[in-house]
Amino acid sequence: LSILSVLLVFSCKKDEPSYEVFLPSNFPAPAYDLSQNPVTTAGFELGRKLCYDPIMSRDSTIACADCHISFSAFSHPQHATSHGIDGLFGRRNALPVQNLIWQPSYFWDGGVGQLDLIPLNAITNPVEMDESPPHVVAKLNRSKQYPALFREAFPGEDSVTGPHMLQTLAQFMSMLVSANSRYDHYVRHEAGGDMSQQELAG
Hints:
Shape: globular
Number of helices: 7
Order of helices and strands: EEHHHHHHH
Mean pLDDT: 88
Strand content: under 5%
Number of strands: 2
């Protein structure tokens, strides 16, 4: 099994550490343009907080992390289909969210082609979060903690906006890199990548 590797590498930027996305040498170039939404410390931490906060759903009972469970490789195990608000079941099971920056399209049908837009599907789906982005933004602006966190992540902004909400979630997903399996180490000629003759033949 591949071990989920979320590498948080601090830069040397004075008084403003930022996270660098781990780009394994055995992976191709990312399909997602990280220069358009660079991962910052504040942005990543805010995106992670939003992922685990049920405020994103209509009645504040369902969080993104309820279907993308971290200890199960961000999947929804032991369920034929994922379930959301009011105990309703969807048509499909939630996909994992690691290594997404290398994907050209998302979801089972490839219906979304932009990483930043992924959360909109769950937020607006009537059997997942059953909420609207404007309502989520309004709730975040009314909260006691989120306006300050968004100002920290996006200096110069006075309020929470929909695009910035989606960007922070994309920053969080950008950092979820699974590239620490024995096979990954073998391909990169690193320690811990020993393979048996049978494995090499395979």
